[in-house]
Every structure is written in C-alpha cells, then in structure tokens.
Design a protein that fits this description.
Layout lengths: L61 H8 L13 H5 L4 H6 L32
Keywords: Signal
InterPro entries: 5peptide_repeat, Thylakoid_lumenal_pentapeptide
Protein name: Thylakoid lumenal protein TL20.3, chloroplastic isoform X2
C-alpha cells in the first residue's frame, strides 16, 4: 500500500472570513496567507509554514495557538501585521479576550459611540467629545 502525503501550497492565499473547522492542514505552506476572522477550531496545522501569515481575530483552539506561537515569525506583506502579534503570542491580555463564541473580541473593542450616542456615517466610528 502506497501512502502519499499531499502538502498544500497556499502561499499568499486570502482566507478572510472563512469557516475552516476541523481542517487538516499538516505541513501546509501558509506563507503570507491572510486568515483574518477565519474559524479554525479543531483544525490541525501541525508543521505548517506560517511565516508572514495574518491570523488577526481568527478563532483557534488554545493548544493550536500555543503550538503555532512556538515558531511564528514574519510580517504579512499585504496587511503589515506580524504573525506573532496576530496570534496573540506572549500577550496574556489579548488571549484573555478571545473565545470561540466571541472571535471579534480578541482585542479590546474600539469606542464605537460618543457620549451622545452618535457616530461618523463615513467610518462608523465615533470620538468622545
């Protein structure tokens, strides 16, 4: 029986806002990939190449995130975000916010309303006066 290993080359791919639950991405090459707000719960990224990958607001299991942080490096050339920063490596405050039920709270929320409850129609953000 011949067993072959398929190594995925996903260099620079944009997986923003995708559901990749229970994916097996062992040894996948995710160099410079964008995985912003991607759901990767119960996924296996064993020995994946993640140099320059952006995992901002992605949902990963804590054990998977810790494993990736051991060798995460680089900065994504498109988003300008550090791979270690996007995973929250070494930042206990950032890790305190994230959970699978609230992926967008992986960092402290921006102030969305001013004191009067109004915001800028163009940006959706508001400044307190």
């Amino acid at each position: 029986m011949l067993i072959t290993t398929l190594i995925l080359f996903l260099i620079g791919a944009d997986f923003s806002d995708t559901l990749m639950d229970r994916m097996v991405l062992n040894e996948a090459n995710l160099t410079n990939a964008i995985l912003v707000r991607t759901v990767l719960t119960r996924s296996d990224l064993g020995r994946a190449v993640i140099e320059g990958a952006d995992f901002s607001d992605a949902v990963l299991d804590l054990t998977q995130k810790q494993a990736l942080c051991k060798y995460a490096s680089g900065t994504n050339p498109t988003t300008g975000v550090s791979t270690r920063s996007s995973l929250g490596c070494g930042n206990s405050r950032r890790n305190a916010y994230g959970s699978p039920s609230s992926p967008l709270l992986s960092a402290p929320p921006q102030k969305l309303l001013d004191r009067d409850g109004f915001c800028d129609d163009g940006t959706g953000l508001c400044d307190a006066k």
